[in-house]
Request: fold
Amino acid sequence: MALMYVVLIVAWQLYTPYDNTLTLQNPGADNRPEGLARKADDVVIGEYFMLYEENFTTSLTGKWCNFRGENHTNIVADGAPFVEGDFQEQWSFTTGEGHAAPVIYNGRVYVLDYNEQLSSDALRCFSLESGKELWRRWYRVPMKRNHGFSRTIPVVGEDYIITLGPQGHVMCCHPITGELRWSGDLQKLYGSEIPFWYTGQCPIVDDGVVVLAPAGEKALMIGVDCKTGEVVWETPNTLGYKMSHSSVIPMNIDGRRTYVYAGVGGVCGISAEKADRGRLLWHTEKWQPSVIAPSPVRVSSSQILMVAGYGSGGALIQVSGGVATVVEQYKADKGLSCEQQSPILHNGMLITIAPKDGGSIRGKLACYAPTNLHTPIWSSAADERFGLGPYIVIDNHLVVFKDDGELYLYKVGNGSMSLVKRQRIMEGVDAWGPMAYADGRLIVRDAHNVKCLKIK
Reply:
């Protein structure tokens, strides 16, 4: 028996079960047309498209066009009363793991998703009324999960929807048809270094120009024509800043309209005036956390509040005569701070969620007077802690979405807030993505699910 098995094994090793006439397939032998060969790192932005619904119509006209809403304040008002009782779910859909939030424009909802099965960024368009997917445009860009994939919010207008993908790919499509208009790769064009947890910067549009901060070797900030994709101005990166998770915020500061950006390396102001748009106005390196997600918040005509997590705390920057000075700087347990979301200035109060290293108020909702960033004038109850969840002001009410999927509604008063109701929306996991509101509907999400609630 042993001899028989030895013979069988030797025969199996020596036997060649294929035709010896097979030849090596050399490059070009398949007659592939010239120009179709693709390198491993090549990304063809917007190469695939699927239309699911033709001749879609809607009567809705509400808008939530970009990160933090129309004025980049995360405040919206429409005067409609809130629904009595529980808010009802209108629709929902699942996503790849991530925290990217939607925008809303005339009855359509847009979100940048990531499809793990196809290893693709996907811009998806849905009906705000029904939640039905209308179209999808996507492109392959293999990535590894790192607390999810997509994090950014698109910017939408009458004839554009622009996304910034996790690896710095910019895509502009027509918002109705999904037609690809133009695209760009910030890593290849500007030498951008993508942050560890992927791109968190949300594009903005100002006067028909999309403003981005590549923070790479070739430019700190750029302006690109929304219609053509042509670069109309560039700010050289003489400061050597690198891309952060924070977004560019336009504001009037020191008597000038300014694009304020907190990069890895410092905070700067770039002119948004037509006469010298793109010119570096001021900068400071006195406050430069290694990781920063919240965006700059204007607290007065000359002051900007900056906050960050991982023990960084907060800082107050004074801009006067083209010079930026850090007038206050403190750790998270010594004053107003927030780890992921950006504070809201409303009704004379700065509203925030204290980070996990925020001392006795860690995780709580807290309000501060702009003139005193160290002592809260109000904080939520002991059992009202929210982690990294988002918050938004709607008609003098604060809506807070706890990171486990529970929704809270507060009435904003003078120097305080009162809880109106709380409602379990989902058994959420990492519900960190910002909310969007239009036409009486609030859109929330966790790491895997997007839900639309009728709240007004």
Notes: The first strand starts at residue 48 and ends at 51. Helices lie at 2-14, 186-190. The radius of gyration is 25 Å.
